[in-house]
Amino acid sequence: MGWAALERPSDPLAVAGVEPADTLATRARLSRLGRPAGIVLLLLLLAFLSLYPMVMLLYGSLHSTPPGISGEFNLDGYAGLLTAQNLQILGNTVGISLVKTILSMVLAILLAWIVARTDTPARGTLEVLITLPFFLPPILTATAWAMLGNAQVGTINLVWRWLAGTDSTLIDVYSYGGVIWHMMQYSTPFIFLFVVDAFRAMDPSLEESSRMSGATRWQTFRRVTLALMLPVTTSAFILSFIRGMEGFESAVFFGTPVNINVITTQIYNLITQQAQPDYQTATSLGFAAMMLMFLLLVLQSRLLRKRSFTTVTGKGYSPNVIRLGWMRWLTFSVCIAFFVATVALPIGQLLLSSFFQFFGFYQLDMLTLDHYRSIWTNDEFWTALGNTMLLGVAGATATMALGGIVAYVTTRTTWFGRRLIDLLAWLPWMMPGMVLGIGFLWGFAILPHAVPIYGTLWALLLAYVALGTPVAVRMTSSAYQQIARDLEECSRVHGAGWWQTFGRVLVALAWPAFAVGWVLVFFGIMRELSASILLYAPGTQVLSVVMLKMWAGGKPEDVSVIGLLMLVLVLVFRWLQLRFIKTRISTL
Amino acid sequence: MTPISRKTFLALAAGFAAARTAAAQDDPEWQKVVDGAKKEGKLTIYTATLGSRYHKAVFQAFEKKYGISVEPLEARASEVRERVRIEQAAGRFVGDIHHNGATTTWLMLRDGNFQPHGPIPNLKNIETTYEVDDTRVPCEVISYCLLVNRNQVKPADEPKSWQDLLDPKWAGKILSDDMRALGGGAVFFVVMYDKFGKTFHEKLAAQKPVFSRDIANSERRTARGEYPLYIPFSLQDLSQLKSLPVKAIVPTEGRPYILFQLSMLKNAPHPNAARLFMNFYLEPEQQLVFANAGYNPTIKGVVEKVPEDLRPLLATKAMGTTTPEKQDAMLALAKDIYK
What we know:
The structure holds two protein chains of two kinds. Chain A is built from 26 helices and no strands. Chain A is mostly helical. Chain B has two domains: 17-139 and 259-311, 3-Layer(aba) Sandwich (D-Maltodextrin-Binding Protein, domain 2); 142-257 and 314-337, Periplasmic binding protein-like II (D-Maltodextrin-Binding Protein, domain 2, 3-Layer(aba) Sandwich), CATH 3.40.190.10. Chain B contains twelve helices and twelve strands. In chain B, helix 2 crosses helix 9 and helix 3 packs antiparallel against helix 10 (284-293). At the A-B interface, helix 6, helix 13, helix 19 and helix 25 of A face strand 2, helix 4, helix 5, strand 7 and helix 8 of B.
């Protein structure tokens, strides 16, 4: 159903004769033109945001030299990938990402179910606490875990040796397990954020019917609850798996010292760790990874094709929770255990360290507030914070608007070109960030000088919108898929236009997903570094660049202060967001 | 040096510096550069030093002295190079000065990213160790040594020579910057290879050093006692680790180093400001800022002025550095030896 609905004889406006026939005819003509024009506009915008940098990268992968240097076209970049070492790296990457995604998925679904569908105490607070690690800079949590879990003098191992009276080592973060564990701290809350609102928005009468028909609680959870969550869980799984394939910090921090290499560390080596950067092989490797991820998308599309996952209908429902009795304290303990392991331990370590002169040296004579003073008086930090907030708010809003429209076109219409639109919106997510950053740099630099993008905040904003769109699309399309079409049709039958229906029905019902998507994109922008470091100019630097500078300049303690400030910001945002969602849900 | 003689010495040095500046200012040709720079009013520096407070201090001193605003663009070496390359290919000439390690600078010189800087009065003070040409200005040096944890390594056990690292007692106890990637680790690999040959590395590899690429964190890991030894340690980080239980040691053979250079970018929009800045950077006052932080200065007569605890470390022999021509071959060899 689209704008063409205005042409229908049964259109109540026409039937009621509210507007003259010639006005209606003009509007109908405009509508006929409007849809293709809108699609073309959308295609052009997405092509500029995602296809254009990809084309630059494709050139880089097929040319012996990067743009601007004479060379020749060849396939050396791709031919060079077929080595035993690269196959091992590919195996490592897929294996690590798969294991961490499966573990995170199980954990996130359990936590989301506890928070959204049970009467576990303090669920609102738990929901905020569970998601905290996602918003912290990975380099900070990696540092915290390096202090907590190193084999020699890690706090956990020291406590273990003291308690057990042994010299053995309980955990060693410099291992496959360490890489996976650190990645899970980001993927679990990420998946949790994806699925929790879908759980909340689900009509519990479906589960009740299942129970009344004789199914056990487990059978109901598996065959009804999980089955209905399939679009959102597969989306989250794939997004998380792809992010795992592109994960860098965990691998370089905990994997490189013990020779665990993944695709991104290999790309990093090719671009930054040799005298002559090898952009051809790096971009070829990026495209090879992208093809692998594309196959996953095809798989997801086949899995969900022609199946209905509608849980929000026009028939009315009242969200309620499952009463667990004494078991609610068990579920509460699960959430608290997760919070302690992923939040309290690393963040406690960071908080404590921020009051001492050096990380990990807790001597009274080293107590100081210097790191807080240093940030307070740092002009560069405040400029970067201002730029980042501006880009974050504008970028997240623009991204969610674009994502909402793209998701509508791809999930609610049968318009020509919608598959291409979906693909274009996905592209940036499938290319490792540090390669895509180069694509943006090349693409924006060679634009005509009259186009004021390169070297301005626009370059960063456009890159952020491109990078955030896949999340926005997945978030909103999963929510749209849960909304019955009869609600839209009802709105149109009662005379609402396309935009009115889109805004007042779809967006209104999918509002929790929009709110979560906005927060995800906003903090994605706050953390983004790969493109930022290549696109910022004097005066347009952002927080992630300033943090990198501080880190490289030997001030990790100052970086932890910024990380903690970001955490406060997250708490405020999440509190506002949950209050907002609560208001919306209660009005449904 | 007694306090009085030190004061006198510093006064004399300041007097010489002032006299030199005055002489330069008397030169009408140079005065044209100064006037032109002030007229340009702005300078954009592309630098591969990320977050260095010492460089920031020098930029601010230049702004204060000449009223010319400095806009630094900081990124990692390869990122700086790629930005310059694509900007110039696209006809965007934004940066005035490029500040980077000698290897990257050499590659960019080969690619035609620079223009000759023209006469610079203070170039005559450059130490003979460092080569000067019409494009590259040696500006400061990162020197590498050993970092030991004082709680874990008794003075008698401290390595005196780089070859002491091969002692079996250090097996599994050495944390190292990754020698298979650009940076201090790679420089250490090349210099040790040139000095002691391949066998040194084969024996060191048998000691099972643990590689890391996060320099600041590695230094702290050593201070916390995760490892008693860290190689190679950038001497300029020492001032940031004061009050931690660590000690920097320059072995008897000397210190590997990376030379940093300033170059004027092709079609620099503010060429006079760029020249003036290069000259300013080589003033004893600015070089002393770097030397006090643990960088080796590139001009004569500065090491003598640094505090006594740091002076012996800087006054050691410059052992060698890497060269761009053999860098990638050496990285491949390092990957082969340190699997």
